[in-house]
Design a protein that fits this description.
The chain has 223 residues and is an alpha+beta fold. The protein has five helices and nine strands; from the N terminus they run ααββααβββββββα. The protein has one domain: 3-Layer(bab) Sandwich (minor pseudopilin epsh fold). Strands 1, 2, 3, 4 and 6 form a five-stranded antiparallel sheet that branches. Strands 5-7-8-9 form a four-stranded antiparallel sheet, with helices on one face.
Amino acid sequence: MALIKTSSGVKKSLKKLSRNNAFFKKKRNSKQRGFTLIEILIVLGIIAAVIVLGLGRVRRNENNIKTTFREMTVLSKEIRVQARLQQSFFRLMIQIKSDESRYWVEKGNGIEYKDPKLELKTKEQLENESDDKKKSSFTLYKKLTKKEKILPKGIKFKSLEIQNSEPMTDGLGAIYYSPEGLVEASIIHITDDKNTWSLFINPLTGIVEIADEEISLKDITQK
């Protein structure tokens, strides 16, 4: 009888183990099936959305850069034309800041200037001067720029190089156009923090030549 009981207990134990093994095998098979179709579609949808947003930003940045190049190219020609027609000095103002870049056009209120660059002063300098000295010989020329133009988000002026002057990476600079149609040889560097482009203003024609790399003014004038 003792042997029969033992045999019966063993059979029960074996049945229990068999049931447990079947449960774990079923659970393991369930895990091995991986993601469901819905889960895969959700993941693919998220990936696609990220790619679309990324491409959208890249294309928008490229459009902003192309638009800025086109505007600067046309503007330089127009400034030179107006300087010759009106027989007056003009200047293209370039403001370089880490957070925001601006540019605009100013016209001289007379023909003869001993040194037009003396008119270029910072706001701090103007605040410390008398009312008479605050009057500038240059004023905003609204026919070309109605107000200060801000570069589109994502791009900015990196530096400004003007012949016979130190390169400027911050602050306010000016490129002068004479009544004779001559322009100060200069290069404006524009960046999107990844790439840098060089806009060289030809001193004889005012035409802007664009290079898809950072070029120094010395490299051009020495050729």
